[in-house]
Amino acid sequence: MINPNISVDCVVFGFDGQNLNLLLIEQKDVGQMRRFALPGDHVDEDENLDEAATRVLKELTNLSGLYLTQSGAFGDINRVKNIKDLPWLKSNRQNPEARVITIAYYALVKMEDFNPSASSFANRVFWQGVYDIPELAFDHSKIVIKALDRLRQEVSELRVGHELLSEKFTLTQMQSLFESILNSSFDKRNFRKKALNDSWVIPLDEKQTGVFHKPARLYSWNKDRQSI
Amino acid sequence: MINPNISVDCVVFGFDGQNLNLLLIEQKDVGQMRRFALPGDHVDEDENLDEAATRVLKELTNLSGLYLTQSGAFGDINRVKNIKDLPWLKSNRQNPEARVITIAYYALVKMEDFNPSASSFANRVFWQGVYDIPELAFDHSKIVIKALDRLRQEVSELRVGHELLSEKFTLTQMQSLFESILNSSFDKRNFRKKALNDSWVIPLDEKQTGVFHKPARLYSWNKDRQSI
Predict the structure, then answer these.
(1) Hey, what CATH topology would domain A165-221 get?
(2) Which among A44, B19, B64, B219 has most CB atoms closer than 10 A?
């Protein structure tokens, strides 16, 4: 039995080595225009929130094995009352008038490791550039912005993102990662100075191979780094 | 009308210049032993989550004007099913069997600025040393631990806590703040070196006054500091 008042929504960010993307579904709609949304659905009465997020993501996109973390609860009284959402609610929900509070989860993955495919009420699932998101159902845009804020905070403090680069990487690759997620561009010299002074990385006694340009030095993350 | 499935709980940390404390209430119970809990209650159908947190905290403790931030949603299917919580639920809830998902909020305040007093179903409200918390109702201990983790992360990245010291402070005062919140002790020299090298603070051309010991230099937070 589903709980009519509680749902989960999943904000899955994917990094392709250059750009940050967001996983979206196109919902099966009732003879209408295309309708985009985060993968999300109601929580079952007999499952915990984390379990629900894992199940719902799997049901809609066939993705599993992601590390999903809560990014916030969204419970504005009008969050599912917009007229544009009514046709979908009427054809998909037993009680389309119910107030729904959603618990948002987010994850950051290396896109090449995950191949989503649509099922259940998702018609299509796709990666969309995070700086080019179409209009989304309900308050999903707000949920994305909040998760992106959270992601940026985590990345700028080097708590997540390590696994998006290979074990050994160049400072240029590292800079691309930060630039795409933080949507900023950094001065190359300052970025390098900061990364080394603050001990984010450890220089290795190795250089790139198999490149046409002058091979750059390789680095690895400094796993022992402490912020204080 | 209250929503029987959704509640809010408030984790209010207070710093007294030396130690970190937690705001607790003693609930009015049904002829039983004393029962401690976080200030929390159900959400009304016509209020947003943030509004609910502010209202509930005010109703139970008469505190207002705090900056409350979400620290997580807690929805384990058994979180209000423990036999120890049943008498209270039966005498206080219309549907004591209902599954309740709670949205936790937290705040960090300077204790001297806030004087809580009990009302509604709180019998007493008090500050308790955060490393000496009694047994709490429901899953409130878990909620406290999660909020404390979050607080420590925020403080160690210098995103919160600035307002807990005076505008001008000594590095010893700053170290006390970090030590009490992070529950660690730092080597004095290393701590100072780090605080200055990483530009957390700006040294002022002023020293303490009105102290019997050798006056120490004063500092202010570096508001322009960027992590990256």
Answers:
(1) Arc Repressor Mutant, subunit A (1.10.10)
(2) B219
